[in-house]
Write a structure and sequence with these properties.
single chain; alpha/beta; D-Maltodextrin-Binding Protein, domain 2; 14 helices; 10 strands
């Protein structure tokens, strides 16, 4: 039985083939790629990246070699994405918020409380809207191999319990350098502080920030539970990431190699979706064993209401974009 994510992957591979169809198709060649990401080696994402690298090697009979560099070994996400745009032989993960620097409409895919059920994100990936976003990204030199790499719903780990919107007031919280994140927590009454992910553990332990937000597998994998003991299950973002390569670099590869990279990126994303759901189901117990108190946020409507003005703050979006995305998610 095909899952929603699987169905979207099949449809997407067809549309990506059309986008790449006009590129030249040279003979097979030896290709070396670096896959950079900022997450720990214990997280499902890293396992999916290693799986992708191995499957690409096998499918290409060794002609494509991908080496994975976790934990910001090659640098912060934003800087690596800029290197990819400039033509580096690098694959990197990226948040829709980072893609918004190049294609503003991409930012809506990281908006707060947009996707209630993570499986519904497949509807966006199968839509004409997503194909338009990919086409615009290619014009800026960036080609998403896939955007179905799910790392979990994002929650808050803090020095105090958070149950209501009011509990955010005055809270200093680490956020990435992405306007969507900054505006979301400002709307909740918190004070967002930009830190690179590699600095978060130190920032929490030294009191530079009171809190951080991330998916539960990332919170546990980065050992943030060692320095903060309260997790609020706010689920403010559904964290889907894109796997990005330089568009011109991809175009110069033989068609067979391009197809392998697209196919394996999609299929590894599907594998990661399932692995993340399984990890989310067990990591709560792991956190609790380490003395973390888990607080379920029950008044989600209050959080949705508080963050609703965030959408209106992005005046560079195409008019009607929010209604279009909501229509896609509703199936209309």
């Amino acid at each position: 039985m095909k899952t929603p994510i699987r169905n979207s992957a099949l449809a997407l591979l067809g549309s990506m083939a059309l986008l790449l169809g006009s590129a030249a198709a040279p003979h097979a060649q030896q290709v070396t790629l670096r896959f950079a990401h900022n997450l720990s080696t214990t997280e499902p994402f890293h396992l999916a990246a290693e799986r992708f690298a191995e499957n690409v090697r096998k499918a290409s009979n060794g002609d494509i070699r991908v080496t994975v560099f976790p934990s910001e070994q090659l640098g912060p996400n934003k800087e690596i994405l800029q290197l990819v745009q400039q033509g580096a032989n690098v694959i990197t993960l990226t948040d829709p918020g980072y893609m918004a620097d190049f294609v503003p409409d991409f930012g809506i895919l990281a908006a707060p409380y947009l996707v209630a059920n993570p499986a519904d994100f497949a509807k966006v990936l199968a839509s004409p809207l997503y194909r338009e976003l990919v086409a615009k990204s290619r014009e800026r030199g960036l080609m998403p191999l896939a955007f179905n790499w799910y790392i979990g719903s994002r929650n808050v780990i803090s020095n105090r319990e958070i149950r209501t919107v009011e509990d955010f007031r005055g809270l200093s919280i680490r956020v990435p350098p992405i306007p969507m994140y900054q505006k979301t927590f400002e709307a909740l009454g918190a004070r967002p502080v930009t830190l690179q992910w590699a600095e978060v553990y130190t920032g929490l332990s030294q009191g530079v920030v009171d809190a951080a937000e991330a998916p539960l597998p990332t919170i546990f994998g980065t050992r943030l539970h060692e320095v903060r003991k309260n997790v609020a299950m706010t689920r403010h973002f559904a964290a889907f990431l894109g796997i990005i390569i330089n568009a011109n670099f991809l175009d110069k590869l033989p068609e067979a190699q391009r197809t392998i990279l697209l196919k394996e990126a999609q299929e590894s994303g599907e594998w990661l979706f399932k692995a993340t759901l399984e990890k989310e189901a067990t990591v709560v117990a792991d956190l609790q064993k380490n003395g973390v108190k888990i607080v379920e946020v029950t008044n989600v409507e209050d959080f949705q209401k508080a963050t609703a003005p965030v959408y209106a703050g992005f005046t560079n979006w195409t008019p009607g974009l929010l209604d279009r995305v909501r229509g896609i998610l509703k199936g209309s």
